[in-house]
């Protein structure tokens, strides 16, 4: 039986596989459907004003995470699997990247899978960590893109060389179980990371636009300070509590956020816009997760809340209907705090999956149903 391999050694370099480059991607030609700076007409709760209030300027002394170098056309992209992986998924992802003009670099553990009971892991901990370190350390790699989520990213957190990641900061893309790495990088390295679609889980699965174009526009630098991130017209968010708030955008998968509470990698919600989403969590479990975070004081410094996709909540109704079952739980926790709440935001396990720049300063405007970037996320 193959074991996950702890404790981890100090990793230097890792083996790499290279695929040939074909074509060139012109990022400037990407369609930005759903991510334009215009403001859509949002859905509102009864009693909420239908007119759009002027959005105030960002706070002058706010401090967000450090922007990372933009992903350039034709750049090398490392495919990593810090959690789980699927058979042939890495090579299919490499073909997807090639077709868009990037040079894929398949990191070894993304092709691996352990024996039971650790068959949920893509390679042992040392190999997955080595891939992550090598992808960041390689100056020829322009982005580190996660193959998929699953389980197991948390196993790496205490062994990651955050100083190495900070010295070689670059776009790091993923969500779901990858939330563990997002939170840890925010805590210990301090650069912007991207809660966005993964290669196998979203892009090979054919999630609809603007899943792909929104991500590429953001990491290529087409969206800068003052740009609005807005859902497509058929996926507009719902204003639960009206208002405008500015702060660091932080969060991700609710279950992972709760799991890391009490550890050195716990979420820092001070002066933050909190984003949460999840999948396969029934209503009672969501209630318990929210209650845990509230009891730990993790909602005390929050300036606003962005509620993403909650999918597969119950088998008795479809995701759009079931999503509404979560809203009373959110209001129970946050209504008395008198902060703006925008729900039904299409980021996470739903379709489409809009990219969010974690650690960046943003303004949440519930009347617009949108987020404004208040700092550069790439340079």
TrEMBL record:
PROSITE patterns found in the cross-reference section: PROKAR_LIPOPROTEIN, TAT
Domain (LD-carboxypeptidase C-terminal) ranges: 246-364
Chain segments carrying region Disordered: 39-69
Domain LD-carboxypeptidase N-terminal: 77-196
Keywords: Carboxypeptidase, Hydrolase, Protease, Serine protease
Top-rank taxon, per record: Bacteria
Pfam families per record: Peptidase_S66, Peptidase_S66C
Record-stated family: Belongs to the peptidase S66 family.
Protein name according to UniProt: Murein peptide carboxypeptidase
